[in-house]
């Protein structure tokens, strides 16, 4: 099932997306196959490594904001008709994401109905509101969908903000995008300040990181990157090595902070408050600073990196497929605390192969055919860096 290569794809951004989705998968493998069977305990260095995987989600959010921001800039600057631009944008995003999401709501419903996993259907998930302002019910129904719900609210609110700003500034102009990205960045930080309460890692994960209104700033950093890429090209193209170094330090600080919440002490509430507020900001802003390097440092490299491009292309289907696949593999292989580590490793390798295979089928037989229908109703907009 070969896929034609897109000349507009950015190799560096595909590397980031591929690294993100693989880290997510292997951390979920670690949790599902090793922590859940008590073969490995969530403690010590292993716990810190697993907690550090939260950085990969920040990469995906900032990358989404960057690519969608570039798409919106191109779309809104070529027309003064906000309604037409917003309609095209929403249709293109919803054709791309919503049908596959509802397919996997149904699949997850069946897994619960036939008692292959725990949980209960949550109606809020039909409207992407399962984690809008409060934690999801547990056990989670379609637990990984919290991140997609955040993206969907970003897709909805960004054009609305641009429309409101168009009463003061030209539609799609520099000031509109800079102000919109600032609102997206600042508002969730203020919201986190308001609810900061000395969280440990699991409390922070459930009550802050997975809540849409407290985490939209990650996509805001991506939109800011798109605006800077468009309107400040000299800054964007200069000193990319220094930006890379600074970005890595910021990401390291944010990741170490969030991981430290695993072992935060009862007498360290003030530090826990600081971490719960600013770790997302540090990781997201760090990602903002590495994007100029990623978008410019990998040219004409896909002749030897087709696998990276393919995994990046399938990333949404992989995201949707991997947890149902884990559930089915654990059920049919009867994984429990008596399963040997060697067998668990072999099963994990098999599970990875099944995730990639099922994602390929979902992409080619469902996601892409339905996504292609949007070409009948909308105009295609390039999402590549400027």
Topology:
Elements: H1 11-35, H2 44-52, H3 54-77, H4 82-113, H5 146-165, H6 174-195, H7 201-209, H8 217-231, H9 233-237, H10 240-260, H11 269-296, H12 306-313, H13 315-332, H14 341-372
Helix pairs in contact: 1-3, 1-11, 1-12, 1-13, 1-14, 2-10, 3-4, 3-5, 3-8, 3-11, 4-5, 4-13, 4-14, 5-6, 6-8, 6-11, 8-11, 10-11, 13-14
Percentage of residues assigned to helices: 55-70%
Low-confidence stretches at least 5 residues in length (pLDDT < 50)? none
Q: What's the N-to-C terminus distance?
A: 30 Å
- Major sheet details: none
The figure for the number of domains is 1
Query: What's the total count of β strands?
Result: 0
Structural class: mainly alpha
The secondary-structure element order is HHHHHHHHHHHHHH
Mean pLDDT over the full residue set: 93
Radius of gyration: 21 Å
Number of helices: 14
Task: Give the amount of beta strand, in percent.
Answer: under 5%
Shape: globular
